Give the backbone structure.
Amino acid sequence: MYYQVKNQPDLGLRWEHIKYSWQNGLFWISLLLMLVNWGIEAWKWQIQLAPLEKISFIKAFKSVLAGCSITMLTPNRMGEFGGRILYVKKENRLRAITLTILGSISQFLVTILMGTAGLLVMKYFSGEDSETFRLIPDFLSNTVLFTAIALSTFTLLFYFRIGWLLHLMERVKFLSKPLKYVRLLEQFSGKQLLRILLLSFLRYSVFILQYLLLLNVMGIDINSQVSFWLLTVFYLIMAMAPTIGFAELPVRATASVELFKLFSPNIVGIQAAALGIWLINLVLPAIVGSVLILGVKITKENE
């Protein structure tokens, strides 16, 4: 990637463009959409917590930001519950962990379903724009596609048939104790699960829009429809790739370059967009969340 950037013929011009990208109004819209992104997640968290306790939107917002700071230190952001439960009543914290998992599954499901759709569109329906798969051996592209379809199907059944899964878990003796904390999931009706899933899709749409805006800001001249489907595949890769939040950037940059370089020679701009999204959606919220966690700890120590 270093040599790709170094050997880019118009590197000086591209770098000048990136240096002044903050003056572009679309950059600030993408930045403001970060609040929408985490606002939707806070709304979703309120719904998830409803069977346990009711919290205000502001408290839910602080909670998800606190969770974001913890995810930067855990594989594939699995540790968000560590920050979120600080804003939950002490007696409800163990059960609240289960609820954070429900929200993560809904977001993962949307990502997998959209990524699978992106793979199908790019492989079978994109016509001249299907260069991505033409440059990949058939056996490899088919393996990725079939894996995504299988994973989508399994996750979809798991999400809407949690009660069925719990009944299976009852038959395993060593799962009987932790099962009492998972039982809470049976209280969610199909309508509630669908509502959570729709909010996850809305949040996913914000991810896509932010990235499209930053690609435009960085001078990536690709058809918006092609960019959309490329991004669905990009987020699918990120959902399946083993990463840790603070060390995720190289994976993001590599995946985005490998996808977008087939349609644009602007490697510097592609990497800059990946960096921008990482800073806006992960690093900045994690910094704010860390401050919130510190504030909670100081408050408790003074009580």
Notes: The first helix runs from residue 2 to 6. The chain has one domain: 2-297.
